[in-house]
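Journal club side-thread
Mid-discussion, someone asked how the predicted structure for our own chain would compare to the paper's figures. Pasting it here so we can look after the session.
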Amino acid sequence: MPSAPAPEVISLGCRLNIAESETIRALVAGRDMVVVNSCAVTNAAVKATRVAIRRAKRDRPDAQIVVTGCAAQIDPASFAAMPEVDRVVGNADKLTSSAWKSDEAVVVSDIMQVRETAPHLAASFSAHARAFVEVQNGCDHRCTFCAIPFGRGPSRSVPAGAVVDRIAGLVDAGHREIVLTGVDLTSYGPDLPGTPTLGQLVERILHHVPALERLRLSSLDGIEIDDRLFALLTSEARIMPHVHLSLQAGDDMILKRMKRRHSRAESVKLVERLKAARPDIAIGADLIAGFPTEDAAMFANTLALIDDCHIVHPHIFPYSPRAGTPAARMPQVEPELRRQRAALLRESGETARARWLQTLVGTRQAMLVERPGDRGYIGNFAEVRLDASATPGDILSITITGAESDHLRATRETT
């Protein structure tokens, strides 16, 4: 008898979803199923989830279509009503075997009551050159634009021992780069005995897993980078010289209306300190265009932040009103103006990125090879394309030979 088609997991959105998708893949092994692990960060992300569901049904009409993730958690009824969807599974439930054994059409528990995270951490990331390890989930902050706390629940942390054991196992399995992920990564620890910090967790990982070659951190809230974490980011060679900051805006009034906890000056000062201590560090940032009440001068402050904070990995969103959030009730910027401002931010970010890439030409770098085997990333997260193929997962010594607008060209060094 022919075997059943392998299950497929489609992951949208953040790196935390990527990490959790690997756990899901193991839980649904052997089933003719497509799981769409959804995102709800913007209305566009929810729309992309629906597009992915319809495409999955067209591509695999006989497979069971299951929707999970943040969009499914926040609005399960709307996804259950889609004719293509067979089941909806909540964000906490998706990491439990019982949810996948259930025949119920909707399995969505109250995410706000969840107090633990990562009960099952993926043992393998065979489809990825780097491995993603969830160390934190949920968020206790209430930024006025954000619906994610309602999809992820309260902030909760994975005990350091479990994190270290998982990373050691992944390194033993051949992974040479690990990415720590979370919804609000810098909120790690207050819910654990002894209230450890993210910096202490990173120290423990580096000490107890000496074979780990490269450690990367996902998005950080700059206001929570303490002295210990700052020292690690700027002086530890095994931590990649790449910091992605959750900035969101560059105008103080908009930041207050977003209910962010930092000022523009604090963001600029943090980047100045990072660059002074580790000049090769590359800065990424999330920025929102067209937040409610944003006028031309306020937008200009955000636009200027790209240069003021040396942002070379910009992640730009036009503001998206999310139902039930305070910002959705504020005076709105016209949608077309939001799109125009987002385009200007992207253009400025692309210019800064291209200028930065040119400065790397002629340098020697270490590159983690991705699939396909002629592409990968160096420590500062610049994308590189080799002049010949190599084995995914390898770390190569390369020389940068040229720069395009969004990536570098390189040749492999011979020994």
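Post-session note: The longest helix spans residues 335-359.
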